[in-house]
Amino acid sequence: MSPRDQVLAVTPAYWDDACRHLSRRDRVMKKLIPRFGEARLESRGDAFTTLARSIVGQQISVKAAQSVWNKFSALVEGPATHLAPQAVNALDPLTMRAAGLSARKTEYLLDLARHFVDGTVHVADWQQMDDEAIIAELVAIRGIGRWTAEMFLIFHLMRPNVLPLDDLGLLKGISLNYFSGEPVSRAEAREVGEAWAPYRSVATWYIWRSLDPLPVSY
């Protein structure tokens, strides 16, 4: 990670309460949570940059995404952790393509920047808005679907009760931990998740860790 990418991580204040709640309510969580000690969800960067990174990283490897991100973010002055939407909006599409972005991702990033510049996403109001209202705003941006919006709710806004049923890792983890490896449907996963409320994001994070002990951050 370069100095331009370094930023202080923030962790949720509710994490310890969530772990106690989940350990009382769920036999799998009671065994899983202690395996990962003090590791917990972390939020980095700002809203626009987090969403921009999610677009850059679509359908390519983590290594390739970091390479393209480094070239793209270098086009904009300031830290790579806090890109200014106005600066991205002013970029020439050909210059962005030369940094390794596809034509489609270039369009998506410019559309994202326009939504922030025009105020069609209500960033200042997100703390008071419910999850579904924020998802509705985000999926109106080209290149952002429900799964990306839910990852944003978990990893950036650190909302405690998100259950991303479109996430293949969550379904696989529920299969392995609750159904002895048998495939699970979305309905079955939703039923398991009902016991995790109001901390479904936290339980999801531990399910992911059961597949890959390395914590993910966006």
UniProtKB/TrEMBL annotation:
Stored Pfam families: HhH-GPD
Reactions it catalyzes: Hydrolysis of alkylated DNA, releasing 3-methyladenine, 3-methylguanine, 7-methylguanine and 7-methyladenine
Highest taxon above the source species: Bacteria
E.C. code: 3.2.2.21
SMART domains attached to this UniProt entry: ENDO3c (SM00478)
Listed GO biological process terms: base-excision repair, AP site formation; DNA alkylation repair
Molecular functions per Gene Ontology: alkylated DNA binding; DNA-3-methyladenine glycosylase activity; DNA-7-methylguanine glycosylase activity
Residues in HhH-GPD domain copies: 56-212
InterPro entries: Alkylbase_DNA_Glycosylase/TA (IPR051912), DNA_glycosylase (IPR011257), HhH-GPD_domain (IPR003265)
Keywords from the UniProt entry: DNA damage, DNA repair
Enzyme superclass (EC): hydrolase
Any one cellular-component term (Gene Ontology): protein-DNA complex
Family to which the UniProt record says this protein belongs: Belongs to the alkylbase DNA glycosidase AlkA family.
PANTHER family, A to Z: DNA-3-METHYLADENINE GLYCOSYLASE
Annotated protein name in UniProt: DNA-3-methyladenine glycosylase II
Organism: Rubrivivax gelatinosus
